[in-house]
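Fold it.
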Amino acid sequence: MLVDRIQQSRAERHHFRRAVTRGQPYKPIYVKIKIAWVCNLRCAMCNHWREASEPALDLAFYRDLVAELAALGCQKIHLTGGEPMLWPDLEELIRDICDRGIRPTMTSNGTRIDAERARALVAAGLRKINISLDSPEPALHDQARGVPGAWEKAVAACRHLRPWLRPGGLQLNTVISALNYASLGRLPDLAIALGVDRLNLIPLDEHTPDIQRLSPAQIQDYNRRIGPVIARKALSAGLLSKVAQAYPFGGDRAAHEQSSAGHYAHGYYEDHPCFAPWTHCLIDHVGRVSVCCMLPNQPVIGDLRTASFREIWTGDAFAALRRTQNLPLFDTCRHCDMFIAANQQLSALVAGNRRPD
C-alpha cells in the first residue's frame, strides 16, 4: 500500500524523492494506533498483560487526531492493542476514520467478536481484520495465548466475520515459535475451511520465559517438512502470493543463524534505509508517538497530549531521524522483516528506477 500510494502519479513520486533526499517530512500514509493496552488473554509472547499502564485516551481525542491525520494525507489507520475490542466506542472510531476518507483495519485475538459485533464492525466501515490464530490445533493455540477456549472463539470470530467482509478482508496472523511450528502444515486447510483470504506467518520477535524462537535445527526442520506443505496448499488457495512467504526464516544456513537470533531482516538494514520515518508511525494508547510498532517508545518522538501530530511529524526529533546516515537506525531494526519489500521498492524509486506512467 505504501508504494502504491507514492507511485500513483509522477507528482507523488517527485514529492517523495524530494522529501527523502532533503530529509523533509512526506505523508503519514500508514499509521498504527494501539488504542488499548489491556488484553483479556495471557499470550506467552507478549508483555501487555504483565505490565500496568495509564488509562487509554477517549473517543474525542481520537476524533481530533483522525482529522489531523486526514489533513496530512493519511490513507490507512490500523487499530491494535492490547486487544482493541476492549476499547469502548470502537465502532464509532472506525466510522469516523471512514468518514475522513481513511481506510480502517484492525488486529484482534477474536475472542470478543460474536455475530452481532462482527456485523457492527463491518457496518461501521472496517475493511480488513487480522485474527490471531497460532495453530490448527486448539490446545497449542490456547497454550500460546494463555487462556483455555481462545482457539474456539478465534475460529468462531472468523466464521462470524466472513459473511460481512469483502474478499481480501479476512487474514490470519500466526506467530511461529518452537511451540507450534510443527503443526502449521495443516494451517492452510483450516484457513480454507474458514474462508480466510490471506495468511501472515510471523516469526517470534522476542524470547520470553514461556516461549522460544526456533533454533537453527528447528528452522531447517521447518524448511524441510513444513514450509513446502504450506507453500503448496497456500499458494494454490491464494492465501500466499509468493513461495518465499512460506519461508519467513530464509533459505540458507546464514539466514537460519540470523533468524534463530531473531535477526529476521537478514542484514538488510545494515546497508539499506528504512523509509518508515517518512511514511509511518506508531501511536500508543496514551498518545506517545514512536517510529513504528517494532520500536514502541524507543525513542518517543513526541507526545500528543502536549503537541499536535503535525508539530511532531514536522518537528526536530523526526527531522533528525530523516537526516541520519547511521544504519541501522536502531538495533531493533535488525529484527524487523515487516517492510523490507516496500523499502526495496522505495529505494528503487528514490534512485529513479520507477515504473513508467
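The two ends are 18 Å apart (CA to CA).
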